[in-house]
Amino acid sequence: VSRPAADDLPDPAQRATVLHTVLDLLRGDSLLARQPRLAERCYHLVHRLCADPVTSDVALRYLRARETFVSTQLRAVPAAITTDRPRATSAELHARAWLWRTAALELHSLVLQDSRPRAKLIAEWLVADAAQTDDADVFTSRPSAFLDAQMHLLALFSGVRQAYRDAMATLQHQRREAEADSADADAMDAEDIVKSDDVATAEDAALLGVDISSCVAPNARGCALYDLAALAALLRQAERTLDAAGALGSAAARQRAHAAMRRLTVRCYFANQERELFFAYASALRGWKEMAEIVVTSAWDRVEAGGRAARERTAFQLLRGLVQTVSEHDAALMSPEDETRHAEVLTALASTLTLFSERLSLEWTRAGVLTRASLAAAKPGAAGHARALPPATESQLPVEPLLD
Fold this sequence. Notes:
By secondary structure, the chain is mainly α. It is 66% helix and 1% strand. The chain has a two-stranded antiparallel ribbon with strand order 1-2. α6 (86-112) runs antiparallel to α7. The longest helix is centred in the C-terminal third of the chain and has 46 residues, at 251-296. It is elongated and about 80 Å long. Residues 389-393 and 398-404 have low confidence and may be disordered.
């Protein structure tokens, strides 16, 4: 393609390109479930082509005209991640991140180009009830039933969050088993087993005279991990140094050093797994965040089904659903490091929550709800009687319970 702004990709029947092959793979049956790492790379390539200033025009134009790629892929990828393998979960999270970032880019581009039907198709599907089989209405027409609904956008968020929690629980179970086996082999004291990871790691590193942070390096995705090969070389060198200094003269001293080396290796291995998993989780949240923020800003007016009342209910459900999900607390996963990660998630989603609340406030202002609510909270009227509520202009939201 010599002129990306004007030229199109060739018909695959005449001349197939790498992009055509990638799209064929993604159209296949459950590539994401069968080969999540390959699916991740395919979605990453598609996003790179759509985001690059040189190839963006021709790539997006082709995906819209011949593939309806974004809409089709959003519908094809399930909200739930069912794999029980943490590495596969990480790959699936990264794959979803690239797909959702592409969807955000496409939706924003469609809005800027005033391509209303295509933008409407994506935006309305994202806010449609995930339990419905059609996109005829954002939620059911019954005034209060929307509180029990879960739109696709929130179902995607919940699926990512649950997959991360399940995979983290699996990793922590595997880690406890590995450490218990190591403790049995090394005949550790009970008080050594219950020490925190940081304390135990610092003590083992001090015993060997090593700095394991020197083995940390970013992987291909940019996640900082322990280089296990470099760690093994560092531990071997530490053993030689201790041996030369006469610190391993007794069998007991050598056994303690070998036990510390095993414990450090096990901890670094599982630390890598947990870091990769959280890195993938954070990546998926960033992709979801981009998509969600486009929906409630530039693409909001493309949510037309059900009119203004449906948009009001959608804004309410978005804010309510996100707050409920991020406030869930799982005591089993709340180590100090988990607490730090949870705080990072809340910080990353702060701007999204702000946009959701601003959107709801705007919709309530349009419906006259805020005026109604302020009067409801005002002082009683004459003779101690409560002031009567003026009728809301159009709102179908249950305002009074929200004021309690």
